[in-house]
């Protein structure tokens, strides 16, 4: 069976030559083998090496070193790499995962965090948020901080560790500062009107589209082409904003539709404009 690893082939030839008590060994020459031979020579494991002449392929002759009692200078020869250029994997002593999960969450003044079964209830100046989490994660309140701990070092628990900590931190931020998303209407004739707690969109359809917020969310119209969605729950705010945008997603060719404020659209000129440019 041929050996595909050139370094392993070189070490095998040297080991076999030492076991047979040969003074020299012939090894196919390459840049990496030349570098290894130079290191072995500088460290005193071999006498010398030289290119072998009269060979069909580039070959190097390595002169082995023995002591007076015929003991080889090379002992315990072993390959420590699994393949060419790939070092043998050594398990780390500490896995650098869940850095976010280890950080305690400070509880601001005016905020109360109550731990319930598989969830926490966060009450603050702007409202209340109930955040569920996986039962294989432990959450506790100590010294004005929320501490999240995982059960084991399994990859699944590492993922839950950082996720749970982020969800609880978002809930605390929501009841203190709140979350908001702003959407803008683009297009001639596109407009939005306040309709009680909800909004009415006129975005190029033969009919208008009415959208009403869920409990705990606020929709406010600014002018006739801007909508503000706010609330204490980050997930619900983002979901309602996505629902409004989905009514008429922005068109990259006609520059029409509903987009998030600050959303960058790579507008396309279209086939006709591209032909005119040519």
UniProtKB/TrEMBL annotation:
Keywords: Ribonucleoprotein, Ribosomal protein. One of its GO terms (cellular component) is cytosolic large ribosomal subunit. GO terms for molecular function: rRNA binding; structural constituent of ribosome. GO terms for biological process: cytoplasmic translation. Residues 107-178, 187-260 form the Large ribosomal subunit protein uL6 alpha-beta domain. One of the primary rRNA binding proteins, it binds directly to 16S rRNA central domain where it helps coordinate assembly of the platform of the 30S subunit. Belongs to the universal ribosomal protein uL6 family. Belongs to the universal ribosomal protein uS8 family. This is Large ribosomal subunit protein uL6. It comes from Geodia barretti (Barrett's horny sponge).
């Amino acid at each position: 069976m041929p050996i595909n690893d050139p370094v392993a082939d070189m070490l095998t030839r040297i080991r076999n030559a030492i076991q047979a008590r040969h003074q020299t060994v012939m090894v196919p020459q390459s840049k990496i083998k030349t570098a290894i031979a130079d290191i072995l020579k500088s460290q005193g494991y071999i006498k010398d090496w030289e290119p072998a002449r009269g060979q069909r392929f580039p070959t190097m002759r390595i002169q082995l070193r023995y002591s007076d009692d015929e003991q080889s200078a090379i002992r315990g020869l072993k390959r420590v790499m699994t393949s060419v250029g790939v070092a043998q994997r050594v398990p780390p002593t500490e896995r650098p995962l869940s850095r976010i999960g280890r950080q305690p969450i400070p509880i601001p003044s005016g905020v109360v965090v109550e731990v319930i079964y598989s969830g926490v209830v966060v009450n603050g100046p702007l409202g209340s948020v109930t955040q569920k989490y996986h039962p294989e994660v432990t959450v506790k309140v100590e010294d004005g901080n929320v501490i999240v701990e995982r059960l084991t070092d399994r990859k699944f628990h590492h993922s839950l560790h950082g996720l749970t900590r982020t969800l609880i931190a978002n809930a605390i931020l929501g009841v203190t500062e709140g979350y908001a998303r702003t959407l803008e209407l683009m297009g001639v004739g596109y407009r939005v009107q306040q309709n009680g707690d909800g909004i009415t969109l006129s975005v190029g359809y033969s009919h208008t589209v009415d959208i009403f917020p869920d409990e705990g969310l606020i929709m406010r119209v600014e002018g006739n082409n801007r909508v503000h969605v706010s609330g204490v729950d980050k997930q619900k705010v983002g979901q309602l904003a996505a629902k409004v945008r989905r009514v008429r997603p922005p068109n990259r060719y006609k520059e029409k539709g509903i987009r998030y404020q600050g959303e960058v659209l790579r507008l396309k000129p279209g086939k006709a404009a591209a032909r005119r440019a040519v």
